[in-house]
Amino acid sequence: MTASDPKADLHEYLRVAREAMVWKLEGLSEYDVRRPLTPTGANLLGLIKHLATVEFGYFGDTFARPYAEPLAENGDDPTADMWATPDQSRPDILAFYRRAWTHTDATIATLDLTSQGVVPWWPPDRAPVTLHRILVHVTAETNRHAGQADILRELLDGATGHRATTSNMPTDDPAWWQRYRDRLEQAARQASS
Fold first, then answer.
1. What is the pTM of this model?
2. What percentage of the chain reaches a pLDDT higher than 70?
3. Which of 36, 59, 124, 158 reaches 20 to 30 Å from 174, CA-CA?
4. pLDDT tier at 180 (50, 70, 90 boundaries)?
């Protein structure tokens, strides 16, 4: 087995998670990418917008590489990065996310994993960080949101997996899944009796 480059490995996991997030919007209506699907308002386009602001913040401000573009334009709303206003188009938000990728990728390419930064919104005792820590943190956050997006997309139209060509599921037969779900429901009811 040959040794791999840790920075390249982490960066690749971030890239894969980003692409999975973008795929979750493909083929859906404007309404479906925006509509809130959970009691807290989780929506696919909002997750994309949020992740763009996350990357700009962690790979920009943290390492004194700020991005000049405003990150959230919904006024004083504390959830401004979690949803798209009617005048914020899907293509604009996807382009915003891709600009965040470019900015992040430049930071990762320029700095070593041991490069120091400070997360301005973290408590002072935790604020000093390295690129390694931030790369792990943002990759984990992106994958967490990709998991949320998996569930949201499945609720919308049944699409699953991290790529259009790779569902990572044992079958795509709806009857098989209904039997499986029925079996789980029965097991849950028996366990709670």
1. 0.90
2. 93
3. 36
4. confident
